[in-house]
Automatic annotation (TrEMBL):
Record-linked InterPro entries: LACTB2_WH, Metallo-B-lactamas, RibonucZ/Hydroxyglut_hydro, Sec-metab_biosynth-thioest, WH-like_DNA-bd_sf
Organism field: Sphingomonas liriopis
Record domain Metallo-beta-lactamase: where: 30-202
Pfam families in UniProt: Lactamase_B (PF00753), WHD_BLACT (PF17778)
Protein name (database record): MBL fold metallo-hydrolase
Amino acid sequence: MAAHPTGIPIQLEPLVTRVLAPNPSPYTYSGTQTHVVGTTDLAVIDPGPDDPVHLAALLATIAGRPVAAIVITHHHRDHSPASRPLAAATGAPIVGPVAFHVGDDGPRADAAFDADYAPDRVLAEGDTVAGDGWTLEAVATPGHTSNHLAYALCESGALFSGDHVMGWATSVVSPPDGDMGDYMASLDKLLARDDRIYYPGHGEAVETPRRLVRGMLGHRKQREGQILRLLGEGAQPLAAMTARMYVGLDPRLLGAAERSVLAHLYDLRRRGLASEEGPAWRSAT
């Protein structure tokens, strides 16, 4: 868990301050981390859940300074709902990825999509938001969600990685919107960059980002290899396969693990390596 309490602004570098929301869970770790960028005018990245205590902490951190933009990485409801009361309090526009609505049949109550998310400006790859002494550039990183964006702070080499890369755990990739092929491609994309540090939506800063991304790619490829070996034994029900792959996992996380296994299976099916057979899966080779 984080080494600082919720609601207390922690300055991470001259242009970046972090405020932790009081929404810890097995899926959010110590809570959602809101990042405030700038000194004279500000951007607020992922204001978090619509929680009056967290909103008060953000307004105290803002301390009357103008807010140029409220910036969203993706519209899961542990990241974007507070954008609306914060916009009402500050007059700032909400900017971020395109809004969409999808049925979320995954196990995460905290990860259901924020149905009321409606950005004033839609951002895509390469778009920028700027203020006095800072520029945020959108980096498209689909996978955890199809519209996920990270943001590069051009002046310092930092990347706000949202839920795409976190130091404490791998991201949940839950179909139908989460896509394992996209997730792996986005990791490859980040590996080719030279960002100095990552500030994720949950967990501590990642000070060796390329090393972590290489490890995450290796981990997912190992999971894929496990799946292919199990399918080689014959038809496999999803739940049974997940239980064999995640021995000793916190039972509260098994549902999310199953969604990630399913995302791998969909990716393998698309590549002609797996097929669905009733309630089970088998090798297609």
